[in-house]
């Protein structure tokens, strides 16, 4: 597993490094074109180097913020082009602000920035095209084989059907073994009929297998420990199905979990001392920072909601609702009202995708997550963190705890305004959807860290920019 993660990191690092070189050279080429065709004086070396460095850094950060460096980016090539344009638009804006307001001595010729942006877009689009189509920067995809072809193994077939789900590895096939539930097992994948005995060692060596995934339905009496032990000594990774799915999909398959896996698994650590001390301060600072830039939109939203139906019905523009927080403690969440005043006259209901209770302005503010902005006050009160599982209503929590195993474990951390589940599974309106979101929430609970929080915060920009809210 460590070797596979290392290869994935190498691929990501290679992509970032390659695009840094491309952006730097494109900015240098843009300056050459401006100087040559407009016959203007060339800037000093230090001034040019500073502009190239600034632009390269901002393009990489902007690309990260719109998800261009996500290993599991499920996007068409047209979508990638759109994200590149957004990334360069953000870079253009920030460079313009910096060089015209804070560091005027770095300001280049008026045509430098637009020419540089155009050349960078053309270069990155071309590079991404050949990277995606020709499989460049693969850096040696991991070759894996799965022991098991029954019900447990079928989760790979069901959850990782697309080529984009398998960018980091090459799946040679599934090996059926005694005890597998073949009736509910593999349907369309390649089956490898080889006995797990001494011949299996030869199969592993001959096919240059890097990793073996254990996904059999029954382990007791079916797994040849000595053979697997020998493979492990030869440097072949032996990985449990749950660990494999966690690594490749960023979620924990709750319905396949068993107590011993939780007991021996890495993660699920309590927050460390430094995080405990800094958590509220960091969350409060981030909330104030976001509020500083979004208060005009919040004010405008409140006015529009009031004019839309608040003035007529006398209902507040805000909506307060009881939610379940850290360790099951209840608190009042604050949101902009996006539904009619009588939306729950018949009791609590799940929100649906085309809910007729949502007002005209409500559809817009829910799509772009504007309705969530008042929750910054919950963050300042310490009831919520900026990053964490979304808080649920107590009426639904009682039902979900009864129907979904391990659901209550998501309350081991503070609920958040943005979360890992929202980035990976943006809509939920049923028990089944809650089960899918729990897989991502438990992944966050297990791997929570300041670094993961920063990644989620940056990626949440993508949700706002592309309107992928509920």
Automatic annotation (TrEMBL):
GO molecular function: phosphotransferase activity, for other substituted phosphate groups
The keyword DNA repair appears for this protein: no
One annotated Gene Ontology cellular component of this protein: membrane
Domain of life: Bacteria
Residue intervals passing through the bilayer: 12-36, 48-68, 80-99, 111-131, 280-307
Residues in Bacterial sugar transferase domain copies: 283-465
Subcellular location: Membrane
Membrane topology: Multi-pass membrane protein
Sorted UniProt keywords: Membrane, Transferase, Transmembrane, Transmembrane helix
Signal peptide: none
Database matches in Pfam families: Bac_transf
Family: Belongs to the bacterial sugar transferase family.
NCBIfam families listed in its UniProt record: EPS_sugtrans (TIGR03025), EpsB_2 (TIGR03013)
Name of the protein in its database record: Bacterial sugar transferase domain protein
Organism the protein comes from: Aliiglaciecola lipolytica E3
């Amino acid at each position: 597993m460590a070797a596979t993660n290392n290869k994935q990191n190498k691929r990501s690092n290679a992509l970032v490094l390659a695009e840094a070189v491309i952006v730097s050279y494109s900015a240098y080429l843009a300056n050459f074109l401006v100087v040559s065709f407009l016959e203007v004086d060339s800037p000093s070396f230090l001034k040019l180097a500073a502009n190239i460095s600034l632009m390269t850094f901002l393009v990489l950060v902007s690309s990260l913020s719109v998800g261009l460096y996500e290993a599991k980016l499920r996007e068409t090539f047209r979508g990638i082009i759109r994200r590149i344009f957004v990334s360069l638009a953000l870079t253009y804006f920030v460079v313009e602000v910096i060089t015209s307001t804070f560091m005027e001595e770095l300001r280049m010729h008026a045509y430098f920035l637009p020419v540089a942006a155009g050349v960078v877009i053309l270069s990155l689009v071309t590079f991404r095209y050949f990277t995606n189509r020709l499989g460049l920067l693969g850096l040696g995809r991991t070759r894996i084989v799965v022991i098991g072809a029954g019900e447990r193994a079928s989760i790979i077939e069901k959850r990782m059907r697309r080529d984009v789900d398998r960018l980091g590895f090459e799946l040679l096939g599934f090996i059926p073994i005694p005890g597998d539930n073949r009736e509910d097992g593999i349907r369309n994948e390649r089956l490898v009929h080889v006995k797990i005995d001494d011949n299996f060692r030869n199969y592993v060596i001959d096919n240059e297998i890097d990793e073996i995934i254990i996904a059999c339905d029954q382990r007791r009496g079916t797994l040849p420990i000595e053979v697997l032990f020998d493979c492990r000594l030869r440097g072949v990774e032996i990985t449990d199905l749950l660990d494999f799915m966690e690594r490749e999909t960023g979620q924990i398959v709750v319905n396949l979990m068993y107590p011993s896996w939780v007991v021996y698994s890495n993660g699920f650590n309590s927050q460390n001392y430094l995080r405990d001390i800094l958590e509220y301060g960091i969350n409060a600072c981030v909330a104030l920072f976001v509020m500083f830039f979004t208060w005009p939109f919040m004010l405008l939203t409140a006015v529009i909601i009031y004019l839309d139906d608040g003035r007529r019905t006398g209902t507040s523009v805000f909506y307060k609702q009881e939610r379940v927080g850290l360790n099951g403690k209840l608190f009042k969440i604050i949101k902009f009202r996006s539904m009619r005043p009588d939306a729950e006259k018949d009791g609590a209901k799940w929100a649906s995708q085309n809910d007729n209770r949502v007002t005209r302005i409500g559809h817009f503010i829910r799509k772009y997550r504007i309705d969530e902005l008042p929750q910054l006050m919950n963050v300042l009160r310490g009831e919520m963190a900026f990053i964490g599982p979304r808080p649920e209503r107590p009426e639904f929590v009682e039902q979900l705890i009864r129907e979904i195993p391990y659901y209550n474990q998501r309350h081991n951390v503070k609920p958040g305004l943005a979360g890992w589940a929202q980035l990976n599974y943006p809509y939920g309106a049923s028990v089944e959807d809650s089960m899918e979101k729990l897989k991502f929430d438990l992944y966050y609970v297990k791997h929570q860290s300041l670094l993961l929080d920063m990644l989620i915060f940056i990626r949440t920009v993508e949700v706002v920019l592309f309107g992928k809210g509920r």
